[in-house]
Amino acid sequence: MINVTKPAQEQVRMYFEGKEIAPIRIFLNSGGCGGPSLAMALDEKQETDAVFTFDDVEYIMDKDLLEKAGNVDV
Fold first, then answer.
1. CA distance 29 to 27
2. 70: which strand partners?
3. Would you say 10 and 57 are in contact if contact means Cβ atoms under 8 Å apart?
4. Separation of alpha carbons 41 and 26, rounded Å
5. Taking a C-beta distance cutoff of 8 angstroms, is the pair 24, 38 a contact?
6. Predicted structure pTM score
7. pLDDT tens digits along 25-48
């Protein structure tokens, strides 16, 4: 499950102010010297995605990655 904290929801809401709201993908970023980490980007929904809605914004994550990651706090 994805959990988006209230402060994160407020930041996302400010980002979309005056813009069309698009789904936000949570994905595994394998780059950098710190090793793999979760990242976010605007994207389109796919059939293989789990979709969670917080404050009218859809957060999407590949179901396989979600299963491996367990609970994700943003």
1. 6
2. none
3. no
4. 7
5. no
6. 0.86
7. 999 888 777 788 888 999 999 999
